[in-house]
Protein 1
Amino acid sequence: MKKTNSAERGPAAIGNAAPKDVDEYLAGVPEPARSTLQRIRAVIRAAAPAEATEAISYRIPTFKYKGSLVAFAAFSDHCSLFPMGSSAIVAFRDELKDFQTSKGTIRFPVDKPLPTALVKKIVRARVAQNEGKKQR
């Protein structure tokens, strides 16, 4: 079995150095994935509270609000949205039936972003979850 290094199997924008910010990450992503992720980023921004911030975490764009909120990335043959756990994937499983999912990942084609309404629901669910964690 051939071993691959993380650059071969990791996010498309990963090179030798981690990107400094989300804009730098996206600049390194080839089209059509870049446009797809730019749309996902805009939807997340619209759905997240104004206090949410963007960061690079584990070499991928991540929105933070009272903890990690959601992250996204491009890979060679797909893009992914990471809702930071399985609860959102379970909660929206019917709406995600046309997408490949795993415990903490939603995969979608590089040229077709997830539906806007679904991304907003996922982000709002994650906001509520993070706010609930901080109140305990």
Protein 2
Amino acid sequence: MRTTLLTLTAVSVALLAACGKKEEAAPAAGSAPAAAAPSELIIKIGHVGPTSGAIAHLGKDNEMGARMAIDDLNAQGVEIGGRKAKFELLAEDDAGDPKQGTAAAQKLADAKVNGVVGHLNSGTTIPASKVYSDAGIPQISPSATNPKYTQQGYKTTFRVVANDGQLGGTLGRYAIEKLGGKTIAVIDDRTAYGQGVADEFEKGVNAAGGKVVKREFTNDKATDFTAILTTIKASKPDVVFYGGMDAVAGPMLRQMKQLGIKAKFMGGDGVCTGELPKLAAGSMADDQVVCAEAGGVEGEQKVGMDKFKADFKQKFGVDVQIYAPYVYDATMILVDSMKRAGSADPAAYLPEVGKTDYNGVTGKIAFDEHGDIKNGALTLYTYKGGNREQIAVVR
């Protein structure tokens, strides 16, 4: 009897539960089913730079600029095509090596990133750009200045800084017209960036009525420049221009001092970093170095740049080296283009990148038909007491 009662009770409970579920599932008369919330849109932004090797401090600076942009975008709750977007950063290291750069580019293409910011060096950016072009992925370089990058005819390539023609040419004219250079020596590191900016510097010197009396070269991993500098010293130069990066420029400045070469030292944006005084180990005289950064803000725009630098320091605990603000703006431009297109699909939003009219941390950004920034600015700097000081913004 006890067993029979238990069985009946269990059946009754099961029947009641089933009826309850049916009642819960049945919609009220005349009511419409609830609309499903749109799913979150995952957007992957790739970044590539040399985060290992001699110029890792510059690559890490760039990557932090990208991380700052991604964090800010996620905090803003951006919507694209009516869906809330979540941004993810896929960061790769190319070590400043062209082969590693193309491998990193292929890895990002295989991961089907929605856009790429990078690479840092012209020597890695140029070969990697074919990979992105073949995959149809928009690429914005924050720092590659060699003109060849945007002369290949790819519709996917853009840059947010002035090119070597502007940078090197301006420095070449400055050497003659402002520094009064009579005897000019040029050294480059034989990379796409270093040789390119040195060639443009020499053209600028010639256009201003000057003459380069010595042209030498080294490589981007060299540490001993005694033979080159001894040859140059014999020509008694009053200006030495170096096309390359700060990791080589620092030791070169030390050896110039050891050899008693008191010439002005000039370089492009690869030299023009906050790390240069440390790399030169106290061998730089005040006002000895004159360099240019491919970009620049002034007036009211400087307020925004100063705020960015302060926020960057608070977030990461280090000062901006050089290109982090340009990486930040490049990331924001990709996303601004997606918003205007209503899609994160590279094929859908790529045309909008070319129509960019964006006010960023680094100033107003628009692209010409080649993907070069229109009216790119340059900022000239010198160093005093180990600190970088702005001379002028040139357009």
Protein 3
Amino acid sequence: MAGISAFGAYVPRYRLGADTLGWDSASQRSVANFDEDSVTMAVAAGIDCLSGHDRQEIDGLLFATTTPPYAEKQCASIIATALDLRRDIFTADITDVLRAGTTALKSALDSVTAGSAKKLLVVASDSRQGAPKGEAERNSGDGAVAFIISAEGLIAEQAGFYTISENMMDTWRSAGDPFVRSWEDRFAVEEGLERILGEAVSGFMAKEGVAVKDVGKLALYSPDARRHSQLVRQLGFQPEQVQDPLFGRMGNTGAAFPLMLLAGALEDATPGQLLLTVSYGDGSDVLGFRASSKINGSRSNFGVSGYLESSHQLDSYETYAKWRDVWLTDSSSRRPQAQSPSVTALWRESEQNIRFHGGVCNQCGYVQYPPQRVCVECRTRDDSSSIRLSDQAGTVFTYSLDYLAGTVDTPLAIVVVDFEPGGRVLCMMTDRETSEVQIGMPVEMSFRKLRVVNGIHNYYWKAVPRRRLPSGEAI
């Protein structure tokens, strides 16, 4: 039987919260940095999920989002390359609807059950934007989640599925719209959310022969905390059966939201517990999973809870607005338009720039980045092997802070990073506070946007401070 053999997540470091000047709310929500989008967050969640697993065993990648950076170009192929997966795998984008995450998860389960793949990676990621200071902005959040779907080593087995498809114009975003739109609130809630989710959950119960009391944890979609409480009461669940929806800490992460709640439920699940994840958007999907005996002690990553505990509040709403570059314009530096990157060069240098491969000398073991024909240590020519550096820990050897660079995040931090297995790279640092940058600082690599010119999203790896829990633990 198909099911979940591993999971991971990613929540950006930064939050809007009570200490954010101009936010005017005690509730927190996660916000992607200026160089993050649904693709970069998907890569981060994928790395978290793949920790301790052989990436060469992954047979396919399904990417779910409502905010892809490209309208016509597959994003799953970018993610698969950045994660250093095999080239002979199946990749697909599942987009344009909030229940894309559960659609991707069900598709992966069906593929494994049918035998067309042994292991599939499902990644859901979103960074939806609401109008400034509106309810959609206040209740939304940015984040990503990933699952390995297989038929062996399962921590949770598939335990039923039910779906409803219905054309419902309650929330939408047309091509070119920067913000999510919605119809009249009462109609959207009563005729959309409450009716459709009620039918979907009751349909699942009837189809699978289970009752409300049999459910251990319910990972339920909702646009905000108040409606989530109403839905729980109407569906007849007790508070202890419901997974924390994380409003006030993270927010609604769009297509990734019900799956991130499922990942949170898996973190604390006990063997035999029935977990339901319920999505919404032009209908509803209900997926059931039964935690196996392998659920205990299965985590070796940060997961949802780890990333939530490792956060930093922004100083002002203006900083967030500048990152989004939609309703505030920064006129502090006027510089010529950046030149369009060479598509030919991006393709030619994909191994070192996207997969982030260095070279290790087969004679003396010296690591170089980017790979070179001649080993600078022992002078051996054309005798090296590839080494993936994207998941290697490193430390700052030296750094420079450029206050004159034309960048959104001034000052521009440039660091030289030494990796633990060897090798050194010169790169930018992001997700950092100026006061914390220092020589010897522990860092890790993060897939980020350099810039977008002529519609080309130029991605590369940047150094970020190693995420740690409040206790100081780094997983």
Protein 4
Amino acid sequence: MNDAYAPTPEDRFTFGLWTVGNPGADPFGPAVRPKQDPCEIVRKLGEIGAWGVNLHDNDLVPFDATPTERDRIVSEFKKACEESGIQVPMATTNLFSHPIFKDGAFTSNNPQVRAFAIRKTMDAIDLGVELGAKNYVFWGGREGTEVEACRDPRTAIQRIREGMNFLCEYVIDQKYDLKFALEAKPNEPRGDIYFPTTGHMLHFIETLQHSEMVGVNPEVAHETMAGLSFVHGVGQAMEAGKLFHIDLNSQKIGRYDQDFRFGAEDPKQAFHLVRLLEGTADGDRWEGSRHFDAHAYRTEDLDGVWEFARGCMRTYKILKEKAIAFDSDPEVQQLIAEIHDPEIDPLIKKYSRDHVKKLRALHLDADLLGSIGLGWERLDQLVIEHLLGSR
């Protein structure tokens, strides 16, 4: 492999224990790979050049572990991270696997279930902070419905708000240096999940008591499943200052949540996403970690799993190189150069009665403006040529 694409700590590439540790089971068949020990996963991530590892609470500590077992497991894991130079930048809670969460965690109609979810999350937050996490992700995998009559959606929203407000207060009271990131998904495993898109999450965040400590964790597959532009969703989050974490993978539109290797199905979208994150076009580079929430194909053995992990990082670095070349291309720069009009620009950027008067007095020829070609066909062809390596 080309050493230019070898990962370095500066790339801030991370994987979840649940990603490279996925044994390949699906609804139609059992596991095809052996279960891997979390400490061994960390050591292997260090060997292949990853920067960090992320985890759900039960990826590391079994659901029914005793306090003594929990402390031993965590101690061994911390030692493995230190020896491998691996960070733990993000943690989250599994609020979807156990039968208690079959009809939601924070949204359940049963207050005992909601209390259990809050308590489990507090314990998992403690674990994440102990391991060094600065971001904490919330994916409401079971927060949804198949039977719409089971609850008023407004009640569900209120319950999630109460849960998030409670947990924000907990973090503040414990004096933890931790921010929350909310992850949207339209469906699966529920028929419909509350807050199905990043836009829904961004609005909801503004209703929280401590909205300043809550952002979003968009995922490629989750937005693409619904046929949405992931690049636009991430751009909205960045513009709002709310991109706290990101999940990178690949997905075919309209399919189940596939979680393929980054760039495997959508190199053009992945290219524009990398341009956005790296700031090669115009904006600032996003300084967060690049987390791969993806799985190796079920066809793979353990060697294939680590080939998958290398591929995610390698593809990102290739696309970064392509993005830099594309945005340095003089023809590209000419095509996308911003048009400035010193007479008009001030009038349309800020309202005043004087600006209204001047705008109404302008001669703007709609037919002439509508007849001007923009060159986007050529621009898009240049994207393809850079991606295919012919330019």
